[in-house]
Design a protein that fits this description.
Keywords: Membrane, Transmembrane, Transmembrane helix. This is Transmembrane protein 236. The chain contains 11 helices and 4 strands, in the order αααααβββαβααααα. The chain folds into 2 domains: about 1-135 and about 245-295, no CATH class; about 145-230, no CATH class. It has about 375 residues and is mostly helical. A two-stranded antiparallel ribbon has the order 1-4. A two-stranded antiparallel ribbon has the order 2-3. It is globular.
Length: about 375
């Protein structure tokens, strides 16, 4: 708003007759201070208090971020509005006073990134190791990272004619004068490809045996190899510090990568030919719409369709238009990124359900 006030003051001083530029400047600055104070006292603090008190309406489901929504609407939206107004005032007065320094846009987007980082990391502590992270938070945790295969195990198929329950608990029992194979009662998976009736082929099997409720017969047996994995300790050699990682530190990287496309979209408006044209409107409008993704939690199922609808598809259309009119004011890499994301989303979510794509795998 201070930047917009400086532009208005410059226009007032260049007017004929000259206006009161100083009064206009301080009026806009005072209005901005009054707006920020009222929003902080009437909206921001009550929301923070309700989140701190864990009101169910705000933090019950953990699918959205109420504080981020308030920030995007009450702070980011006015900022983008004044960026557009600054360009429009200069266009209408046939002047190019402001050369569009990178500072205002960088501050707006950096504030969004900080809000995203705070919302992701506020569920965990900032001291000590990350062993006690909340599994319901936005930070993903890895439980089993080092695995290695062990010796395969053998299982026995079931007989389609037997009706006697199989022995359980590792005990061997007599069945029609013959001894059945040894069973283990712990269920751990499903073994495909067994012969027999349909019910037995779809029944659950254990890693080292079949379901204890199934019947066995030594006449019909088959061997299946099930690779089992066990956890191994991480590398503890002299260069183990190179493998150091923490989910809390990765949040910063993920947040910046999450916003890189929006940053580049807004940066394209910094070109003089684009900034002093009507294309600044769709650039800032769609950039603000992409900022609404901040409201959704990172692991929410809504994030993927919102990313396509609010960012990749609109950005693709705007970037293709900008390149066609102004040349390569935006990198071609981001055009390909938006195109591939849109095509992948449509293909894997819709086209693969068609009969022509629902065929057997070739390999």
């Amino acid at each position: 708003m201070q930047r917009f006030a400086a532009i208005v003051a410059q226009v007032k001083s260049a007017a004929r007759p000259p206006g009161d530029a100083l009064t206009a400047y301080w009026l806009i600055v005072a209005s901005s201070i009054a707006y920020l104070t009222s929003v902080a006292l009437l909206v921001w603090l009550p929301l923070k208090y309700m989140v701190f008190m864990k009101k169910k309406a705000l933090v019950g489901r953990k699918k959205w971020r109420p504080i981020a929504l308030a920030y995007v609407i009450l702070s980011t939206l006015p900022c983008f509005g004044f960026l557009i107004a600054s360009s429009e005032v200069q266009i209408n007065n046939s002047m190019r006073y402001d050369t569009f320094t990178e500072l205002p846009v960088s501050l707006v987007l950096f504030s969004l990134i900080c809000i995203d980082i705070v919302e992701r990391i506020r569920h965990c502590r900032l001291t000590g190791q990350a062993n006690g992270l909340d599994h319901d938070s936005d930070i993903p945790t890895t439980v089993l990272t080092h695995v290695e295969p062990v010796t395969p195990v053998h299982t026995a198929a079931t007989s389609p004619t037997s009706t006697t329950p199989a022995p359980a608990g590792g005990q061997e029992r007599e069945q029609n004068g013959a001894r059945g194979p040894r069973q283990v009662t712990e269920s751990n998976g499903v073994v495909p490809g067994l012969s027999g009736n349909q019910e037995q082929r779809q029944g659950p099997f254990t890693v080292t045996g079949i379901n204890p409720r199934s019947s066995t017969s030594p006449a019909a047996t088959a061997t299946f190899h099930l690779p089992t994995y066990i956890a191994t300790p991480p590398y503890s050699g002299p260069l183990r510090f190179l493998l150091a990682s923490d989910a809390r530190a990765e949040v910063f990287v993920d947040s910046f990568l999450f916003w890189m496309d929006t940053v580049e979209m807004v940066r394209s408006a910094g070109h003089t030919s684009v900034y002093y044209s009507g294309w600044v409107f769709p650039i800032y409008i769609f950039s603000f719409l992409s900022a609404l993704r901040l409201v959704v939690a990172p692991h929410s199922s809504l994030l993927s369709p919102l990313g396509v609808a609010l960012q990749d598809l609109p950005f693709l259309l705007v970037r293709v238009s900008l390149i066609a009119i102004f040349g390569f004011v935006t990198p071609l890499l981001y055009v390909m990124k938006n195109l591939l994301v849109c095509l992948a989303y449509i293909y894997f979510n819709f086209m693969t359900k068609l009969r022509i794509f629902n065929t057997e795998r070739l390999f």
